[in-house]
Amino acid sequence: MSQASKKSRPTMHDVAAKAGVSQMTVSRVLRGEGYFSQDVKTRVADAAKALGYIQNRLASVQRGMENPMIGVVLPTLKNTVFIDVLAGINDTLAEVGMRPVFGVSEYSEAEEETLVRDMLSWQPCGLILSGIEHTDGLRRTVAQSGVRVAEIMDVEGDAISASFGISQQAAGAEMARHFIAQGHRRVAYIGSQGGSDLRALKRYTAFKSELEAEGGCITYERIANRASSMPLGRELTAACLSDVTDCDAIYFSNDDLAAGGLMHCLSNKVSVPHGVALAGFNDLPFLSALPQRITTTHTPRYEIGALAARYVAGADDVPAKRHMLLAELVVGDTT
Amino acid sequence: MSQASKKSRPTMHDVAAKAGVSQMTVSRVLRGEGYFSQDVKTRVADAAKALGYIQNRLASVQRGMENPMIGVVLPTLKNTVFIDVLAGINDTLAEVGMRPVFGVSEYSEAEEETLVRDMLSWQPCGLILSGIEHTDGLRRTVAQSGVRVAEIMDVEGDAISASFGISQQAAGAEMARHFIAQGHRRVAYIGSQGGSDLRALKRYTAFKSELEAEGGCITYERIANRASSMPLGRELTAACLSDVTDCDAIYFSNDDLAAGGLMHCLSNKVSVPHGVALAGFNDLPFLSALPQRITTTHTPRYEIGALAARYVAGADDVPAKRHMLLAELVVGDTT
DNA sequence: CGATAACATGTTTACGTAAACATCTGGTCT
DNA sequence: AGACCAGATGTTTACGTAAACATGTTATCG
């Protein structure tokens, strides 16, 4: 072990001693506060660099400064959507020198509450939560903590303070109208996550009621318990098409599943969309590389993350309110 | 604003007052240390719950406790590989009550150094860095800080203390031997990230020299500056196949690109692997949903993250050494 | 039966930083 | 010339927690 292993890291006092000034002077010089001679500034900077001084933020925050740290709770890392959201969050926070600490709830509200409590112990200045349904305990905890809270993805429901997302209901209903307009009446629905993905459920509910209102019907419904993936979509589509023979179209809860469905159709010479139309959700980038464009709804995932991050970071041009971003229908190839 | 917005969160003193004991008793009871009457335990627990007390870890860490926080620096979030690594890290840390704070370096060593310095200001008990090439400043900084450091993905080079990954060179060379065995001699290479992905470069270098040693040759080489993606792979493959007509096989720096290449071939009636063989890297799950299996190298990404996390979390059964995990060749469909 | 150990609690202090509150110059203004 | 203020620096203190060091009170043991 080197000599540094046991010795604690250099503090402002060490820097001060080396520079021949007081600790307070070091604190001020490093923060660029107050008036100092060029000589002192240089001595402090040199001493800090020579010792490899790194600020101890725990002490600063303890003393009352804001902690540039944001707790982020995502339901899963297995879905690209949340990765995009995370990228938006991270990029935006990085711009203002903040960092995310994060946790994965696996779509469990109880786990989310535990995670939030854990994160609050580091006194972060904000939290970003997924979805808008939370336990009462969590609501009480964050209310008391006084940190800024952003809820993302979903805006339909009772938000804590600011929510950033799209209207899941509008997206589902729009897809139903598109199906009807394309002449699809007999529709199958394929989902994943065993119904714990509340946003997919909201889309589906709105989709179904709009479809039925317009004269269509759901002829098949399958929500698998596994996590969403292309292979799962392929498998479920195979099962669906062998179970029901007269289905015009399949609405998948997301693009992974839909792309898997397309792969099944390609391999089994089922024409898309004439044999069966497929629609997903999210408009993931890899769709554009598939042999054929399928219908989907574009979701502004990165923007949702970025905007939520701006809010919790304290940007004053992002008010605490319901921010409903635009989710646009993307129509697939019809050849 | 509610009355809680200005008032600071309850402390151990508040809990102690409510329970009618001293702050120290609260500290001990909550940590389950020392002996206490059932009565006191109950009173403290009730008071803590009633006030919604949450521990202030900043104070604990400041006082000398270990901070259950790990700084994680990844080169990008645009590559699924790092998401899998992150999942392994997160799951493993969560098991022992630790959380990752993280940053993205965009493949820049300078940015990585900045990020590490920033993270160290929170006194984390460990760091997970990507790759094994780092600036001297970073090496000095982490050495002085005394935190545990794990380097992931890459094991070829001079590690700080513990490295977890696969042999990029062996993977590249193995693929070259596979190409030769399959009769492919004239090979194209398609990469991305403009050469800043040092691991891809190591694979390619080993691949090329092994290929040439066995009588093959590189007839085309294109490393695009953009981030890796299926659409990019499709585009580059189209360009490649229109530029060189006599190429037997294409080695892509990863599966996204290779899958994009496959999509190009499918859409343009180029038979795979007879017209041109395609090989990627990583064995991403979505490959199994494609119409055809392409050759790739399976990388234990999740395991790398999990093992590195175990190490930095302080597991004593993970020694500080070079951990070389197995990367297995996965042969694609030959039909 | 005095000593020792296990129980059950409290007091003081330190961690590293920054706000609040001093000083002490040397000009500037009236 | 006295007042006043910007420049340039230092001292004290508090943030919330837990280790170190008390101080009792009961059992327990030889």
Q: How does this model look, in words?
A:
Chain A is elongated and about 85 Å long. In chain A, α1 packs across α3 (38-51) and α8 packs parallel to α9. In chain A, the strands form three sheets. Chain A has a six-stranded parallel beta sheet, with helices on both faces. A four-stranded parallel beta sheet of chain A has the order 7-6-8-9, sandwiched between helices. Chain A has a two-stranded antiparallel ribbon with strand order 10-12. In chain A, β6 (186-191), α9 (198-213) and β7 (217-223) form a beta-alpha-beta unit. The first copy, chain A, folds into three domains: 12-55, no CATH class; 69-167 and 302-327, Response regulator (Rossmann fold, 3-Layer(aba) Sandwich), CATH 3.40.50; 168-298, Response regulator (Rossmann fold), CATH 3.40.50.2300. Chain A has 335 residues and is α/β, with parallel strands linked by helices. The first copy, chain A, contains twelve helices and twelve strands. Chains A and B meet through α4, α5, β2, α6 and α7 of A and α4, α5, β2, α6 and α7 of B. The first copy, chain A, binds a DNA duplex (30 and 30 nucleotides) through residues 8, 11-13, 21-25, 27-28, 31, 33-37, 40, 55-65.
CATH superfamily of the largest domain in chain A: Response regulator
Percentage of residues in helical conformation of chain A: 40-55%
Unreliable parts of chain A: 1-6
N-to-C SSE series of chain A? HHHHEHEHEHEEHEHEHEHEEHEE
CATH architecture of the largest domain in chain A: 3-Layer(aba) Sandwich
Instruction: Please give the number of β-strands of chain A.
Output: 12
What is the strand content of chain A? 15-25%
User: What is the count of structural domains of chain A?
Assistant: 3
Biggest sheet features of chain A: 6 strands, parallel
- Quaternary structure state of the chains depicted: homodimer
Overall structural class of chain A, as computed from helix and strand content, comes to alpha/beta
Outline of chain A:
elongated
CATH topology name of the largest domain in chain A, in short, is: Rossmann fold
Radius of gyration of chain A: 26 Å
Mean pLDDT over the residues of chain A: 93
Which two protein chains have the largest interface (Cβ within 8 Å of the partner's Cβ), and how many residues from each?
Answer: A-B, 62 and 61 residues
Per CATH, the class of the largest domain in chain A reads Alpha Beta
Distance between the termini of chain A: 68 Å
Identify the strand order in the major beta sheet of chain A: 2-1-3-4-5-11
DSSP helix count of chain A? 12
